[in-house]
């Protein structure tokens, strides 16, 4: 692996950048791996990376049915934050946020993590109390959060509509200054390159079509590129969790829904932070290329279609324009959708399944991207040791039947009400 | 945006309807506590056809079961449920 | 440069470009007018700030992007080829400083050897802060135009439509299809993104002509069909829903009736796509210079606009079509210096032109503003020609976007070297050039990769494609994301096929095996304001209006949003703060009487022989033993056993009940009741009527409430938790003796249409007894002191009846929703949050603060609501605390680090006032 550096680029300027090696190999699958990870998204690749780096395991494969990073890793709004109210959630995401802050150096791959601040807006006194409660819960657990006055919000984002007569007037905000955005594709590619350098086999165009069983245990997978034996198998396929788990005869507490996002044509800098809202369901940031990245609620019905609903999109844009009227004359250039696995308490599932040697990392709903490093780290721990890391222990699959759900929004088991 | 053929009103835009839940999420009467929780907390969630409970909320407000393909969005059947559909 | 055939009819109109005034002819696009005025340099590219001119004559234009219009109407990144000039149009070039000609950003171009594909990923290491330092400059250099800062002065409208046949594209094929459908009696909508019909008919002499187009349009209209010009079918969604974006005013133009654009949702019986094709450029070094244009675009400027973009022209082609351009130019008086035809042998159109076969362009020379010469290779021998225009045709890419958005598949047409529509998933078919593009010569010439641009706007060259391949980014999606190919405002309309061909060549496979990226909506970029429509004003959230809104408004209260409602929070007297007003109001309730509007509470009338069965399914408390005229507190569980709402249930009559629940949960409760009644229990003989807005509600509370009510009704008021019908101000009302405040209290429900006289009479009586109106803030003080729960506060969707100490009220008969969920083991384990009261030992308790045993410890609970003792002062609160029932007497810290507030608190029972309920007794 070449080391990436400014020097390397300058050297390349003289040779037409011809000295760069492939970022990852394109290996043929071996007959057996100690650990097989199904799903070459950010989470699966991060898992492989930490299995190799932290746990010293080398005989690992990541199986990807298409091309790495092609699912939700490449279809999100790139927001990174850890500002959750519930302790198990903010502890997990904060662990991830700490990894984010050093990730480019760690991977020698610039993932362009930009901690420009993730801000929730409050639109009433009641909102502001809820934001304070969230911030206080974080601060007591050592996570940064600051309440903002109206004036501070207006100063950070001069294009917000601060008028008192607005339908949702802005009374203040809660900012996590260490939150921000990152370059989503780079996260998958950086982890892939890192994992590959440790000898992990990243096998693309390799779809898992079934599990090989020996009694109550999984001992391998059937794929479009043949049978691959495995000591342990980890599912890590986001919106397709239900489908892949179904191949092992499992039914999960997840429902797959479409989440849309969109981006405008590039313009010069106009949005400085990540703007979210306590009452409205849209989130706005500006990419390094200048596009305004825009997201909203999921389409609230089950779908694997990777196509959004025009009216959900129109609703999200209406809310965004209510917050930032200056977006009105920009043009939306592209909209896309991801398939999210909406869990039945809104929190992820990381841990063992009822099938021996088969593990699950899923149920990330619409919040998986920011968790990529933490998800990989804890899942790697779980796969390497056979038992969960303290951070993912609360996120066991059995919590639903036990009643130990982690319900950030308090809306209960129906994902469409979340 | 789909077109859903309401058994009472005829074809209407999806924006008039609200999806509630899948048929397989509803425990039958007489299910044990454990069965009821198993049913509440698991879904077949197929990458294919499933039976879904929708309501014509912004129309006649009636409930129906929509049999729909989750990838193609093809709707093969819409069945009325509720008091109106009792024999 | 103006050619001989430029029409001389009509008034000249004037426009400005970068502040300089020019004239145009009616019907010109901005691009045509700029060319007519001899302007070659129009924009700067995204990455290297390379000088760029006009390349196309359509929506696929990657280079000539300008900001059109001024103030809040300015539209950045507008394609000069897709805006028709109007008098006063003001266009500004973009992405340049200090000006278009002398752009310092172009220095980036010198560093191009370093700024290879993916260079960002390989450098700028160090802390996140360090990246943000570099990012600051990168962001400033990126982007194209500036977003307007002023409010948008125009409106955007939305409309829904239905038709039998929607035809997209009004070229000869589309017009013919629409005409045929109209003749067959179908309801037709024909859309065309241009401002006139005809497409290729306008450009090329054909058997069918403009007169035929006009006659067809008349026939379509006469049959009741609609023809929408300046309208783009931008998205194809489920079940043949197509979104159309219609420009009623040009970019930056003041709209005639205030509406700038219109968004259509068209549900079509059948969709016919006659979307034509887009000409492909050719890749060779310096193919991006102003003066290099697509061949059909040149022909369009000559024939349609009468503008000849060059006098000494080299044409490079791999197909027959470019010879039509040669003829058009010749007719316009331009000299065809040479035609470089990639095909090895003459194809028969070359008479009269200096034509070379097996010939390709290899480079261009010129200035920032124009082209001076073209060099190429003919049969392996280098040649050079002086020229001011190079017209290129690399073949044709069918516009299959909508077909693909509709879920259709593509097939490879080898003769045309293009993807054409294959299977359709929806009721759509593609006709004309989009289905059968013209054949081309397939062999790609070998050219140097450097500065051979594929994606012009994002400055992606063949060398970038090669580098991505070498570094392992081999899937077409990786290529796109690594190089940013096809991600510019043109979404790869002119670039994708060129890059795909290169990728396939690298892979050693045929193009169709190399794959294709997804065609995502919209086809062309769509103004955000258009998607939002009129909903942007109120964020798409309606406001619900109280029946007594005017009565309250006249008193100028402080309003508080509550769900979609707005309710008076307090009625301050002159000089009073919110807190002072609320405390005065609360004290009035404690000492005398107060009245408040409770109309927003959810209310359901449930009647029929099986009403109890329904109620005992929905409510977790028993209802069956309730006597006529009596009511009781109740709460409802989700299926997972958590409390999600609470309220009261009243037996009005033998088989008629009134159920109330929280304001915020009203819609959810309505759906829940409907689900239980219709889906779970269709067999029940019961009706559920949502009467939330039919009934206005007035609460009268306080020690004098009973005497006030007696005066109002002239009858003995009902006992606590009883109900009677009565009359106030001659209007029939329902009186419920229920209390949220802890005082003897009554809720008076009345037909919302007749609420005002009832309110007026109540107010007179209350005020006459020394009482006052109270708002939500006082109500909050009162209920906290009494220890009553609120949905969204103590009832937060994460608490069971056990956690809230409501378990003694559970229906021992079971059978209610949530009973099964409650049996789950973790719900009765130690450590769960439980409802507690909190008394300040020191300081005042911040609402929402965390409960910790000592500073620096992780929270064990939080304050759900806090208030002051209404009569004695002192801070108190309700909260959730781990194992709270067992911790009464313990001292904790309620801390709010975000507000710098803190209090020492003692855990107590959650009742601070009249815990025995003495005050309800008469």
Automatic annotation (TrEMBL), chain A:
Residues 35-79 form the Rhodanese domain. Gene3D superfamilies: D-Amino Acid Oxidase, subunit A, domain 2, FAD/NAD(P)-binding domain. It comes from the Bacteria. It holds the Pfam family DAO. Its EC number is 1.5.3.24. Keywords: Cytoplasm, FAD, Flavoprotein, FMN, Nucleotide-binding, Oxidoreductase. Signal peptide: none annotated. Its cofactor is FMN; FAD. GO terms for molecular function: nucleotide binding; sarcosine oxidase activity. It is found in: Cytoplasm. Transmembrane segments: none annotated. It catalyses: sarcosine + O2 + H2O = formaldehyde + glycine + H2O2; sarcosine + (6S)-5,6,7,8-tetrahydrofolate + O2 = (6R)-5,10-methylene-5,6,7,8-tetrahydrofolate + glycine + H2O2. One of its GO terms (biological process) is tetrahydrofolate metabolic process. Its main location: cytoplasm. NCBIfam families: soxB (TIGR01373). Belongs to the SoxB family. This is Sarcosine oxidase subunit beta.
Automatic annotation (TrEMBL), chain B:
One of its GO terms (biological process) is tetrahydrofolate metabolic process. GO terms for molecular function: sarcosine oxidase activity. Signal peptide: none annotated. This is Sarcosine oxidase subunit delta. It holds the Pfam family SoxD. It comes from the Bacteria.
TrEMBL record, chain C:
The lineage of its organism: Bacteria, Pseudomonadati, Pseudomonadota, Alphaproteobacteria, Sphingomonadales. The keyword Oxidoreductase applies. InterPro entries: 2Fe-2S-bd_N, BFD-like_2Fe2S-bd_dom_sf, FAD/NAD-bd_sf, GcvT/YgfZ/DmdA, GcvT/YgfZ_C, GcvT_C, GCVT_N, SoxA_A3. Residues 548-810 form the GCVT N-terminal domain. It comes from the Bacteria. GO terms for molecular function: oxidoreductase activity. It holds the Pfam family GCV_T_C. It comes from Sphingorhabdus profundilacus. Residues 450-533 form the SoxA A3 domain. Residues 833-914 form the Aminomethyltransferase C-terminal domain. Belongs to the GcvT family. This is FAD-dependent oxidoreductase. Keywords: Oxidoreductase.
């Amino acid at each position: 692996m070449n080391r990436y550096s400014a020097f390397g680029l300058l050297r390349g300027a003289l040779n037409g950048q011809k000295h760069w090696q492939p970022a990852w190999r394109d290996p043929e699958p071996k007959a057996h791996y100690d650990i097989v990870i199904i799903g070459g998204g950010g989470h699966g690749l991060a898992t492989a990376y930490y299995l190799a780096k932290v746990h010293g395991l080398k005989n690992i494969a990541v199986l990807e049915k298409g091309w790495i990073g092609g699912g939700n890793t490449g279809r999100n709004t790139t927001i990174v934050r850890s500002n959750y109210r519930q302790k198990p959630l903010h502890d997990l995401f904060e662990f991830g946020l700490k990894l984010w802050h050093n990730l480019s150096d760690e991977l020698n791959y610039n993932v362009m993590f930009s901690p420009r601040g993730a801000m929730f807006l409050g639109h009433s006194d009641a909102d502001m109390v809820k934001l304070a409660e969230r911030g206080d819960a974080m601060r007591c657990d050592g996570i940064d959060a600051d309440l903002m006055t109206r004036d501070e919000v207006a100063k950070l984002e001069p294009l917000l509509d601060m008028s008192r007569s607005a339908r949702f007037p802005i009374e203040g905000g809660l900012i996590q200054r260490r939150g921000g955005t990152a370059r989503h594709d780079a996260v998958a590619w950086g982890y892939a390159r890192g994992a590959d350098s440790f000898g992990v086999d990243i096998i693309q165009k390799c779809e898992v079509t079934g599990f090989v069983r020996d009694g109550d245990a999984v001992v391998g997978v059937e794929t479009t590129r043949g049978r691959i034996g495995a000591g342990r198998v980890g599912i890590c396929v986001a919106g397709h969790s239900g489908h892949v788990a179904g191949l092992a005869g499992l039914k999960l507490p997840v429902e797959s829904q479409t989440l849309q996002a969109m981006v405008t044509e590039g313009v010069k800098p106009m949005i400085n932070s990540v703007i979210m809202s306590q009452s409205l369901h849209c989130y706005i940031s500006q990419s390094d290329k200048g596009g305004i990245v825009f997201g909203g609620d999921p389409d609230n019905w089950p779908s694997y279609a990777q196509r959004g609903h025009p009216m959900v999109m129109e609703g999200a844009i209406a809310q965004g324009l209510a917050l930032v009227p200056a977006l009105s004359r920009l043009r939306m250039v592209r909209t896309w959708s991801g398939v999210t696995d909406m869990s039945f308490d809104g929190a992820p599932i990381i841990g063992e399944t009822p099938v021996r040697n088969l593990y699950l990392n899923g149920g990330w709903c619409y919040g998986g991207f920011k968790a990529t490093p933490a998800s990989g780290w804890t899942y790697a721990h779980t796969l390497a040791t056979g038992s969960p890391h303290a951070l993912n222990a609360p996120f066991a699959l059995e919590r639903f039947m036990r009643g130990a759900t982690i319900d950030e929004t308090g809306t209960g088991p129906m994902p469409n009400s979340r | 945006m789909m077109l859903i053929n309401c058994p009472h009103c005829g074809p209407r835009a999806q924006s008039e309807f609200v999806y509630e839940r899948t048929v397989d999420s509803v425990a039958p009467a007489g299910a044990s506590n454990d069965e009821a929780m198993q049913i509440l907390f698991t879904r077949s969630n197929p990458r294919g056809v499933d039976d879904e409970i929708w309501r014509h909320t912004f129309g006649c407000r009636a409930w129906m079961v929509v049999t729909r393909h989750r990838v193609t969005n093809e709707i093969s059947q819409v069945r009325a449920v509720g008091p109106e559909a009792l024999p | 440069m103006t050619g001989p055939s430029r029409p001389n009819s009509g008034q000249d109109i004037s426009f400005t470009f970068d502040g300089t005034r020019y004239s145009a002819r009616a019907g010109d696009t901005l691009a045509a007018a700029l060319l007519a005025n001899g302007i070659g340099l129009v924009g700067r590219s995204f990455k290297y700030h390379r000088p760029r001119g006009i390349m196309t004559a359509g929506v696929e234009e990657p280079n000539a992007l300008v900001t059109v219009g001024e103030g809040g109407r300015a539209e950045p990144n507008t394609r000069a080829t897709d805006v028709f000039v109007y008098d006063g149009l003001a266009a500004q070039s973009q992405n340049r400083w200090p000006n278009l000609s002398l752009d310092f950003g172009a220095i980036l171009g010198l560093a191009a050897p370093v700024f290879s594909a993916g260079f960002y990923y390989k450098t700028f290491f160090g802390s996140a802060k360090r990246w943000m330092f570099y990012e600051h400059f990168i962001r400033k250099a990126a982007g194209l135009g500036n977003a307007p800062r002023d409010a948008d002065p125009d409106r955007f409208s939305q409309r829904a439509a239905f038709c039998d046949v929607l035809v997209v594209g009004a070229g000869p094929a589309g017009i013919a299809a629409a005409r045929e459908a109209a003749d067959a009696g179908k309801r037709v909508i024909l859309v065309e993104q241009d401002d006139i019909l005809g497409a290729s008919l306008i450009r090329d002499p054909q058997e069918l002509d403009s007169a035929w187009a006009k006659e067809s349009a008349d026939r379509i209209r006469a049959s009741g069909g609609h023809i929408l010009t300046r309208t783009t079918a931008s998205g194809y969604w489920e079940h043949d829903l197509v979104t159309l974006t219609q420009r009623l005013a040009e970019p930056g133009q003041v709209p005639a009736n205030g509406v700038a654009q219109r968004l259509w949702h068209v549900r079509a019986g059948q969709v016919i796509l006659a979307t034509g094709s887009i000409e492909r450029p050719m890749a060779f070094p310096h193919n991006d210079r102003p003066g290099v244009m697509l061949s059909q675009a040149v022909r369009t400027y000559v024939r349609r606009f009468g503008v000849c973009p060059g006098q000494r022209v080299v044409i490079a082609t791999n197909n027959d079509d470019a010879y039509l351009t040669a003829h058009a130019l010749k007719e316009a008086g331009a000299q065809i210096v040479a035609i470089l035809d990639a095909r090895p042998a003459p194809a028969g159109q070359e008479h009269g032109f200096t034509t070379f076969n097996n010939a390709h362009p290899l480079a261009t020379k010129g200035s920032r503003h124009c082209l001076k010469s073209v060099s190429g290779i003919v049969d392996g021998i280098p040649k050079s020609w002086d020229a001011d225009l190079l017209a290129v045709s690399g073949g044709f890419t069918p516009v299959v976007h909508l077909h693909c958005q509709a879920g259709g598949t593509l097939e490879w047409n080898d003769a045309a070297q293009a993807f054409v529509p294959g299977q359709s998933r929806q009721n759509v078919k593609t006709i004309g050039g989009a289905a059968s593009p013209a054949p081309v010569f397939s062999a790609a010439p070998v050219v140097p990769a450097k500065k051979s641009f594929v994606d012009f706007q994002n400055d992606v060259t063949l060398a970038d494609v090669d580098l991505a391949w070498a570094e392992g980014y081999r899937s077409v999606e990786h290529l796109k994301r690594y190089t940013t190919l096809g991600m510019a405002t043109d979404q790869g309309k002119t670039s994708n096929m060129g890059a795909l061909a290169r990728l396939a060549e690298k892979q050693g496979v045929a193009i169709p095996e190399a794959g294709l990226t997804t065609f995502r909506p919209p086809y062309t970029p769509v103004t955000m304001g258009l998607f939002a429509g009129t909903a942007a004003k109120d964020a798409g959230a309606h406001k619900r209006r109280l029946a007594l809104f005017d009565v309250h408004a006249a008193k100028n209260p402080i309003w508080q949003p509550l769900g979609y409602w707005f309710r008076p929070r307090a009625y301050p007297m002159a000089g009073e703060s919110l807190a002072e007003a609320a405390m005065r109001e609360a004290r009035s309730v404690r000492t005398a009487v107060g009245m408040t509007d409770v109309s927003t509470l959810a209310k359901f009338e449930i009647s029929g022989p099986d009403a109890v069965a329904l109620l005992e399914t929905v409510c977790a408390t028993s209802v069956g033993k309730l006597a006529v005229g009596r009511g009781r507190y109740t709460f409802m569980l989700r299926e997972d056993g958590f409390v999600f709402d609470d309220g009261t249930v009243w037996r009005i009559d033998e088989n008629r009940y009134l159920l109330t629940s929280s304001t915020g949960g009203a819609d959810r409760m309505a759906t829940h009741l409907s689900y239980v009644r219709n889906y779970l229990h269709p067999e029940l003989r019961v009706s559920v009527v949502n009467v939330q807005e039919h009934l206005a509600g007035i609460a009268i509370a306080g020690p004098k409430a009973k005497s006030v009510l007696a005066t109002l009704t002239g009858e003995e008021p009902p006992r606590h938790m009883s109900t009677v019908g009565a009359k106030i101000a001659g209007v029939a009302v329902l009186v419920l003796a229920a209390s949220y405040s802890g005082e003897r209290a009554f809720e008076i429900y009345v037909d919302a249409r007749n609420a005002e006289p009832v309110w007026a009479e109540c107010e007179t009586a209350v005020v006459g007894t020394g009482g006052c109106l109270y708002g939500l803030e006082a109500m909050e003080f009162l209920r906290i002191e009494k220890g009553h729960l609120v949905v969204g506060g103590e009832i937060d969707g994460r608490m069971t009846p056990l956690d809230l100490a409501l378990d003694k009220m559970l229906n021992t008969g079971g059978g209610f929703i949530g009973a099964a969920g409650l049996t789950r083991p973790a719900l009765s384990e130690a450590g769960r949050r439980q409802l507690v009261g909190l008394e300040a030992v020191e300081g005042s308790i911040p609402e929402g603060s965390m409960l910790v045993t000592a500073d620096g410890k992780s929270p064990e609970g939080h304050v759900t609501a806090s208030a002051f003792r209404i009569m004695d002062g002192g801070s108190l609160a309700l909260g959730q605390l781990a194992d709270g029932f067992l911790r009464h007497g313990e001292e904790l810290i309620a801390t709010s680090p975000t507000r710098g507030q803190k209090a020492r608190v003692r855990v107590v029972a959650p009742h601070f006032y009249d815990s025995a309920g003495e005050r309800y007794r008469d």
